[in-house]
Each structure stands twice: as structure tokens, then as C-alpha cells.
Give the backbone structure.
Amino acid sequence: MERKSAQEFDQELLYLYDYYVHGQIDRRTFLERAAKFAVGGVTALALLEMLNPHYAFAAQVPKEDARVVTRYEKFSSAAGHGECRGLLAKPAGTKGKLPGVIVIHENRGLNPYIEDVARRVALAGFVAFAPDALFPQGGYPGTDDGGRAMQSKMDGKKLTEDFVAATQFLYAHPECNGSVGVTGFCYGGGMANTLAWRLPDIVKAAVPYYGGQPAAENAAKIKGALLLHFGELDARVNAGWPAWEAALKAAKVEYEAFIYPGTNHGFHNDTTPRFDKAAAELSWTRTIAFFKKKLG
């Protein structure tokens, strides 16, 4: 299938899709409201299929890439869901310990796109760890619709504790030198913000992509630095940014934020039409440079 671009869809339809994938409307409602955009023989169901992820596009660093070594490792989350698992990725042929980066998925489990992002982080010279929140329920089911349904039924507080435990796991990992950062996308962006204040003595650098913001009073707990990426058209997430920025300033937290013109929520995800190549590449260049500066 040929990848479509956001410009080929009405912005209202893209907002409808955003509501759908974040649980604000159900599938039937999406299809009913999308019907008015179904013209020229294209059905609402076909529009949904065009907008959904196609993971053949998410192979910037394929699984078999000899430059990267990957394996799944389990960790314990006593305050969360117990036994958990994630994908560990590191550059091939490296000796000694490396700085670590936690990579946090969206609201649908550890899908192929996030696994690919973990390999990209490893290729940049870090040991990456991408936890799968769905592992206690059997793991990412193979589709994002199924993953969203699974994750939406899990205890949110326990999920947070799972990611706290994953970060502590990487921090103490024999292949990590204890210098740890975190990045995440959508749900994972919000979790990156959370980990920055929950683990201020561990997280030196956090890079949330279009992530929801914590309560303002938590800003004062952050000791690390933040690099925040937003899509200009992402009104849902951006609504909380002014208050969070004010809290960061008041707490004298080191941060830098970028809003990418004309881009939607999910602009980094190269498996959907909301992907914006220029913004994705620029933000990623900034992300890796930030981690190298802050983590060593």
C-alpha cells in the first residue's frame, strides 16, 4: 500500500481519527462521522484503513540489521503488574557500559514502530529499553485496535509503576552506565513527563513527543532537563502546554520546546498519514543530540 500524507485528508477527519484512537469516540461513531468524507467511491471503512498504521513502513532499522543487537528481557514490577518485559537494544560490537534510554510506546503496547524506534536509539550509541505494558496480559496482540482495547482496560496507576520499575531496571542494568534518559510518544510522551518527576535522581533527560502534562506542582520535583516536541495542529495535547510551561519556568527546570508547523499529533510515527517526514527527522536529530549532550 502506498503511504498517504496528511494533506490528502480533511483536517476534520484527522481530528476524528485522533478522537477515535484515544478512546473519545468508538469505531461506529468514527465511521458514521467519517461518512461525509467518503466520496469518489471511497467508503468510511476504507478511510479508516488508510489512516491506520501500516507497519511495513516502520523499518528504518530492520530486526535483522547487523548493526544492532536486540533481545527481550523481563523485569519485576512489585507495585505494578508483577512480571513485565521489554525489548533491549544496543549497538553491535560494543564493549563496556553505555548511557541508557527508555522508549515508551503509545496507548496500544509495544508495536513494530516503537520497536524500530528502540533500534534507532541503539544505533545512535545508547542501550535502549522499550517496555511492553501489555506483556502481563499476553503482550502486544498484533494490531493497534486490539492493543488499545487491552491497554484501556489495565490499571493506569499500576501501568505507571511498571514504567517506573522499567526505568529502575535499566538504571541498574549491567550494560548501562547509570546515565538514563527517557523518550515516549503520545501516551508514552505523557509517561516521559511523569518519569521526569517520579524519578528525579535517575532521569537526567526526558523527551516527550506530544505528551500529556502532569499536575503543575510536580514540576518542582524535576532535576533533569526536558526537550518537548509538539504538533501545531494537536489542539488536544497542546491545550495543557501553557500551564505546564509556566510550572517549568517557576520551578526553574531546564527545558526547550518545539512546535512543528502544520503537523498533527503522531507526526513522528512513520506508519500513518499523520507522519511528517521533515518534522520527524528534525525532531529526531534534536532528540539524539540532546541525549548525547545530557547523558554523555
Summary: The chain is about 35% helix and 20% strand.
